[in-house]
Structure formats: C-alpha cells, structure tokens
Specification:
CATH class of the largest domain: Alpha Beta
Shape: globular
Distance between the termini: 28 Å
Helix content: 25-40%
Strand order of the largest sheet: 9-11-8-12-10-13-14
CATH superfamily of the largest domain: PurM-like, N-terminal domain
Number of domains: 2
CATH topology of the largest domain: 60s Ribosomal Protein L30, Chain: A
CATH architecture of the largest domain: 2-Layer Sandwich
C-alpha cells in the first residue's frame, strides 16, 4: 500500500539508512485540533497527520524513507541468531489511559513480550491505527509519544505502519495493531511440550495487577485503590533468565486468562500434571481484596509485565537469583512443580487451608477488553 491507500510510515533499507538519517522532505503541520475523515483520505490532511504526529515521534532512519515496506539486510538479522520470530496483536483496551500505562505503551510492550518469551531479541515493530473521527489530536499525540518512548526503552524501532480513520461510532476512540520481528539465538529452543517431571514453575512477580487496575480505572465500582498496571517490556529480564538457566523449557507471558490459562496450556502440551501452592503465589493484598469484593479469581486476571517459566529443578535457584536481581523480577517466586504422578493435563493448587482445588482453563473471560 502507498500513501494514497492510507499507509503511514513505510520504511527503507539499511543500505541507505546511513545517508537518510534525517532527510524528510515532508514536514506538514496539523491545523485541526480533532481527527476528521479527511485525515484518512490519502491527501494533504493525511500527509500532515503522518508527518506531524507519527514521523515526528517515531523518527528513525529506516522509517523516514517513506517507502511501502521496511527493508532489512538478512546479514543484519542473522547476527542475532538463526531463526526469525514474528508476531502480531491488536489492542482495544477500555479505558485507553489507565494507572501505569495507556494503549500505546501496552501495544509496544505486548508485542515485544510476545517475541521475547520465545527467546527472540525484538528488533522491529509495525503500527497500524484505526482512529475514530472526532478524537482530539492532543490525545493521539500522547498515545504516539508513549509508543515512541516505550519502543526506545525497549530498544526496538517502529519501522512501518498504516492509518485509518472511521466515522463516529465505528470504533471506540482508537484501536491499534502491532506486529513484531525478532531473531532467536540458536541456543534457545523453547516450547510448552518440553516441560518434564520435577521441573519448577517460576513467575517474575506479583500477579493480577493489570486486570485489577483496568477494572478499577473504569470506575464502575467507585473503589479507591493504588493498584497500577504492571505493563512493561520483559525482553531484558527474559534474557537474564535464559543466561542463568540455559535449559529453560518454556516461557509465556500471562496476559488474558492469567497464569491459570498458561499453566493449563503447559499441562496439556506436556501431558503432565502441575501443582502450585497458594502460599507461594505472589499476589498483592490490594488485588486479593479487590477480587474478594468482586468475586474474581486473581489467577485468571490479566498481566502485562509477568511471565510463567518452566525451568529444570537444578537450574531453578540460579534462575530465581538472577530474576530477583533485575528490577522487573524482584518479587520472582517458585510457585510449583511439574508432578511425577497425577492426572496428565490437570492443574491443581494446594490451598493455604491445606486442601486442594482444581485450577481449570477459564471459560470465556472474566473481564472484557483488558488489552
């Protein structure tokens, strides 16, 4: 697609990037304080939107050539590993601003994390936006700046994208789709099916914060709470884990469906049983209280800065030590094990009262539009 087809920010190849670091000739400025249908029409209004909002924020040599696609030398990619990783996700969260983040930060973190949990080094992102007519340009700038700041912190470039504007009521403010490309080092072969008996189940910190923060931000319960989303890019922490525990079997970020869904996926894929311990599962008291009031189970609450890792028993201590030394893993915990016996595909929890309860796969979703 080209500009007349509503594309924004296509990218050029690294072979010319050195000479095109800041050679943009289109430097249009927006006049309207709100987004109109004209900003998706492929003409001057759209060019001004792309220049003044997206190119200004995402400015990088690969992006600024404004071709119809991003181009990369295969040799540049191969320096990071021997396999390409690619992912995509769409973000429709409500509300679009919440304690601890916003839809822009979420879009970058979510895609970076989907690459990182496979052992990949995240490198490049795309960004496609569907914007509702009438959105304030200042609001859009705030979201785009958040994306740019988060991408910079994560060490990735946003290199191509697309913009669509739809009529009032056709979407809820803004929807974002991102795709990501990364490269997996040849030493990493992660997969849920690789879990083995006696492996340890690790998490990198307090669970359920994102889901609780989003529901509280909607204001339906009128609760006063300090809960913030845990939204964060996890690639550096995951690389720290993999260096400390090189035989790690599997990693998955516990987003929709929480850790309960991830654990069930592991149990089914590996044909093993899993036991976790309530007393060892890190959940802040505010989230526990929040869930008790609303009748929710924190094991199913979404996270945007937490992962579940399956690590061999003999590497678990080193893995925990390395994770706890990292800012995003200071509350890391060993919450359970892959059982030697038990019913294959089943997850259960040892409760604080000394009993057991089944932790089943979530049917439906506790909270809609949390990412």
């Amino acid at each position: 697609m080209n500009m007349m087809e509503k594309n924004f920010a296509p990218a050029g190849g690294s072979e010319i990037a050195e000479n095109l670091a800041d050679t943009r000739t289109r430097r249009g400025k927006l006049v309207s304080p709100i987004i109109t249908l004209a900003h998706g029409g492929g003409g001057k209004a759209m060019r001004d939107l792309i220049d003044d909002v997206f190119i200004e924020a995402f400015n990088n040599p690969v992006l600024n050539t404004l071709e119809d696609q991003a181009r990369f030398h295969l040799g540049d990619l191969a320096r990071h590993g021997d396999r390409l990783a690619m992912t995509t996700d769409s973000y429709v969260i409500d509300p679009i601003f919440f304690p601890g983040g916003d839809i822009g930060k979420l879009a970058v973190c979510g895609t970076v994390n989907d690459l990182a949990v496979g052992g990949a080094t995240p490198l490049y992102l795309t960004c496609a936006m569907i914007i509702e007519e009438g959105m304030q340009v200042a609001t859009l700038r705030q979201i785009v700046k958040s994306m740019a700041d988060t991408a910079k912190a994560a060490g990735v470039l946003i290199v191509t994208g697309d913009t669509k504007v739809v009529g009032r009521g056709s979407c809820d403010k803004i929807f974002i789709n991102t795709a990501g490309i990364g490269v997996i080092h040849q030493d990493y072969r992660l997969g849920a099916h690789q879990a083995r008996e006696s492996d340890r189940i690790l998490v990198n910190g307090l669970l359920g914060d994102h889901g609780a923060a989003i529901l509280n931000a909607r204001g339906d319960m009128h609760l006063s709470s300090p809960i913030e989303s845990d939204c964060a890019p996890l690639h550096d922490l995951i690389q720290t884990l993999l260096k400390a525990a090189p035989h790690t079997r599997f990693i998955r970020d516990a987003t929709r469906g929480g850790i309960a869904s991830v654990l069930n996926e592991i149990a089914v894929a590996s044909k093993c049983a899993i036991e976790i311990h309530e007393s060892e599962t890190p959940i802040r008291q505010e989230v526990k209280g929040f869930c008790e009031i609303l009748g929710l189970d924190p094991l199913y609450l979404a996270n945007e800065g937490k992962f579940v890792a399956v690590v061999p028993d003999n590497e678990a201590e080193a893995a925990l030590g390395a994770m706890r030394a990292h800012p995003l893993g200071k509350d890391a915990a060993d919450i359970g094990t892959i059982l030697r016996g038990g019913r294959a595909g089943r997850v259960h929890m040892q409760t604080s009262f000394g009993g057991k309860r089944i932790v089943d796969m979530l049917v439906g979703e506790q909270l809609p539009r949390i990412c």
